[in-house]
Design goal:
559 residues, alpha+beta, Neuraminidase, 3 domains, 4-stranded antiparallel beta sheet, 6 helices, 32 strands, 32% strand
Amino acid sequence: MDPRHSAQDLVRCNMCDASDPLLHCDFCEINLCKACVGEHVIDSTKKHQMVLYKERGSSPSYPYCCEHTKDQCKHWCEQCDIAVCAQCICSPNHRRHIFLDILTFTERKKDHIQKDFHELEKILFSKYQHFASNVQVQKAELLKNTQEIKKAIDKHGEDLHREIDTIIQKLKSDLDEMDAKHMAVLNKQEDEITLTISKITQNIADLKKLLDSNDVSRVSAYKSRNAEFKRLPPKLTVSLLYFTPQTINPEQLYQQFGSLSAFSMTTEEHGFTMETSEAGSSPLKPMLDEPRIIFTIHTHYRGIHKWLCGVTCHSDEEIWTCGYDFKIMSLYNLQGKLLKSIQTKSDNSPEDIAVTRSGDLVYTDRQNRTWNTVKSTRVQTMTRLQGWTPRCVCKTSSYELLIGMDSDDDKETKVVRYSGSTEKQSIQYDDKGQPLYSSGDYKYISENRNLDICVSDHKAHAVVVVNQAGKLRFTYTGPPSTTKGSFTPRGITTDNQGLILTADCDNHRIHILDQDGQFLRYIDSCQLQNPVDLCVDTIDNLYVAENNTGKVKKIQYYR
């Protein structure tokens, strides 16, 4: 019965139901009036402990012994960690054991219980409440963040639709303008022909009258105009316009639209953190025990003092290549067929090549101090540098370009981020003001999926990796067993798993690192000869350009 909604009953004797009992049997846990005490304790089958009602529960309740069931245990054996009775103490099983009074042991145990109680109630409970509250906050922030990202995606989609609508309107406007020009030319010729036809018709009528006339003076005055009409108008043939739509590649369109950052979650354990992350939903793929060559492309970059020096993926089916002392950049398919050749604008050999997110070829011209883009077959100079010489180039995930460059005196090197032809960021020094890169010599560059900027520095015998803000993350000079200066890095690329691959040219192998610079393994079983440049396609096939042989080898290193 709920005491909040009913009158409370009086405490009564459990034997006669008399009110206000004075005594309580702690062992039997019943209330007794004075008259019933004698009757209760006369039951010799049980032990009794009579106390005043107000002191009920104060008598210790001793456990009964498991071996001697009628005896209560009033001691505790420390060696056996059990309660024991008087007979147990004298038994051989507990010879030379140390015994404590069970109430003393209980008090000690209560001290531990008190500490546990205090820790649970005052510390752990509040911490768990804090964690629960934090989870609720993070859930709310996650939902809010998801909605904001969805709005951003919707807005970007609307912007993209507007851009597409603008392109459509521009194409239609261009079509109308060209159509109007063609129509104006045709209308002009039509008017001229109509006028001439009118003149011929009139002349025919005049000649008929002369033929029927006997007027000698008019007939003798006639002069022929046929020569005038024999000069026929030029024949116009208007070439009909046609529209060539680009093939829509859903995968490329998805990549060009934008991407979500890598999923990341940090778990904190007793003062240290363990971080796990995944990009999209693809875990790190297992590697082949022995990487294998899928096929080899034989390029034309071979000759005296002429070498293959660059390779970059145009798609999963085509690669661009370039070479030293070759002013031509060549596009090959995977069957080795030459599809297209582009000549540099200055007739100089390109220093490095890359393909932008939109599919345009980019190349650096060291001698001309420019970097250039190739749209279809038209070459456009984007920037001509002053005091600096462009060397290496790569695309970024944000439709920008990273270009490594040397000062004219070869004393400084920096990496510059460009959006279009606008410089957005310059990376040159570490936190202590020291140069990040050696000056001069070969360098290659790539952006990792975590937005780190990875540069292979041949002169420094190192791979230098900075984060997106330009802060040094690590420098790799080879695995621990590497002899100082024997690592000769050239081409560098990063794959979809976040691994970093760099060509060790003089040692004829590829180093594979994780995104924190830890050496994982070599690719040295594919008969590589002076690998000079690398790239990977969208499914992590590796393309290796060999310096001296002029070959590009496609290598599978994941299962």
